[in-house]
Design goal:
This protein is of the alpha+beta class. It has a domain of about 150 residues: Alpha-Beta Plaits, CATH 3.30.70. It contains 9 helices and 5 strands. The protein has a 5-stranded mixed beta sheet with strand order 2-3-1-4-5, with helices on both faces. Helix 3 runs antiparallel to helix 6. The radius of gyration is 18 Å and the shape is globular.
Length: about 240
Amino acid sequence: MGLKAIIYKDDLCAVITGDLVRSSELEYEDRKLFLSYLRESFTFIKEQLQLQDAILLPFGIFRGDSFQVVLTRPECALLASVLLSLRLRLFNKDAKDLAARISIGIGTIDYIPESGNVGEADGVAFRLSGKTLDGMKQKDQNLMIVTSNQALNLMLEVQCVFLDLIAGRWTNVQKEILLERLSGSTQEEIASRHGKSQSTISQSLKAAGFDAVKKFLTNYENLFEYPDAFVKSDK
């Protein structure tokens, strides 16, 4: 067992696992461009959320259209996933929306290989994330958060369903504005970049359900103030 596995063995981590929806529709050249864009998106999120010291295992791409990352700051996992999803949906504005299924597993990690190969790692968070992603293909869901607490999972599932519903209605303009706002830009800064008034940006955010999205993100982050919330409830 590697040193990192010992250090983080009893800590809560987040494993984010995802795959692309309709990736088979991409032409060969588009697929190459997309993979480059996906890597750029990983870097963008790492820098925006200042996750440089929180990435236990780096973003990895496997099977051509799947990806995974391990965070030691699980409270950042939902925002990271939402930002990534927004970036992917903006990959080709003229084509059909390119969405991703993303599963966030919250739990402990038992083993991190010295090689840093994410495919060789193991632990509760990995199992939860991977198993949930496999089931999402039948449920037609794009985001799920799963823990060892079944009662908490039920609550989070409902919130994820509502976010999916809201996200499915976003226009490209709303996606761009949401991405900038959730990345830390003020309404005034966004308005200046887009050549719009602050009130126009405010209306776009309201129409996109920004307040509801932000509330979900805040509630999720606040859960980590109560570690017992992630303990098994099905005794």
